Amino acid sequence: MRRVALVVAIALAGLAPASAAGRVVHVYNWSDYIDPKVIEDFTKDTGIRVVYDTFDSNDVLETKLLAGKTGYDVVVPSASYLQRLVGVDVFLKLDKGKIPNLKYVWPEIAARLATYDPGNLHAVNYMWGTTGIGFNVAKAKERLGGQPLSTWDVVFKPELLAKFKSCGVHVLDAPDEIVPAALNYLGINPDSKNFLAKIRPSIQKFHSSEYINGLAGGDICFAVGWSGDVFQAKKRAEEAAEQTKKPVVPVDYVLPKGGALMWFDSFAIPKDAPHVEEAYAFIDYMMRPAIAARNSNFISYANGNLESQKLIDKEILNNPSIYPDAETMKRLYITTTYPPEVQRVLTRVWTRFKTGR
Ligand code: SPD
């Protein structure tokens, strides 16, 4: 993935504490998952330079962490991967005294995260969201003839997905999410072999980040994707229309009625992190309510910081597809880590699905 080396010179920042000269933190986070100004401000406020790399797949992150010596100080695995990596002792047990802003965590989210990391010993929730469908409202209307796009039928009924083939369909390259979505759709029908193969011809690409610009620019019309990313696509489409004075590409997100995955991405520190003190400083900074709110306002994801909600834009906080209300919450399910033998089957099923063989 893209490497964004944010070398914010301490000398230029002017505000940097002199004692912090030369300090650095290496952060490995999801793409499109932070307000870039927040990184600059972190350096200004603490004097710690940030080297910021991005990924768009838990599998990529996991492979690196299992190989070791990544050089990263802060990483952001999703909860089911966190669970497996905690099991093989990849992360430092957090010294919570070094993260005073933990007092702002949202207890409900911390409790949910404890399913994966008992006692919340190794991770602090950053953002959380859901996996649903991003779509071009106008193209969906044309193709579905006014029938609402509100269930997973539109993905898993081959004849429905085929209607979108001509305007571009992307699906997350995330077997741990798409296979459970298919099983949930089937009501856990185990015989899913041919089932996925039938929708394969309508899918142009498996990718976990290109769909943001794809939807915003009208190059694709349909994506199984992550909530905040689709809302970022909507925002980019609106900004582009504003700049070009052309009609806006109408993007929307739906959490299908049949149920959708809810996931949690959390900060953790690898055991072999070279700059542990700086990693704590980074996590603590991200847990400042004002900073957590700025990030959520920028990336359209819910965060795990209760106090920040006072500062979150109303259109984000009151959007049930970002901050689900009790009714929406009932439709969300979670997945936990797979034992290695199941993971192997999943990988095989996924490769067969993608290659269409
Ligand atoms: N662009 C940031 C997307 C973050 C998505 N995290 C998803 C994890 C799903 N298991």
Ligands = spermidine
Number of helices: 17
CATH classification, class level of the largest domain: Alpha Beta
Total beta strands: 12
Give the name of the CATH architecture of the largest domain: 3-Layer(aba) Sandwich
When the domains are counted, the total is 2
Largest sheet: 8 strands, mixed
Show unreliable segments: 1-20
CATH fold-level assignment of the largest domain: D-Maltodextrin-Binding Protein, domain 2
Characterize the structure shown.
With 357 residues, the protein is an alpha/beta fold. The protein folds into two domains: 187 residues, Periplasmic binding protein-like II (D-Maltodextrin-Binding Protein, domain 2); 155 residues, Periplasmic binding protein-like II (D-Maltodextrin-Binding Protein, domain 2), CATH 3.40.190.10. Helix content is 40%, strand content 16%. The chain has 17 helices and twelve strands. Strands 5, 6, 7, 8, 9, 10, 11 and 12 form an eight-stranded mixed β-sheet that branches. Strands 1-3-2-4 form a four-stranded mixed β-sheet. Helix 11 runs parallel beside helix 12. The N terminus is likely disordered. Bound molecules: spermidine (SPD). The site of spermidine (SPD) has 10 residues, from strand 10. The site of spermidine has 10 residues, from strand 10.
Please tag this protein with its features:
357 residues, alpha/beta, D-Maltodextrin-Binding Protein, domain 2, 2 domains, 8-stranded mixed sheet, 4-stranded mixed sheet, 16% strand, disordered N terminus, binds spermidine
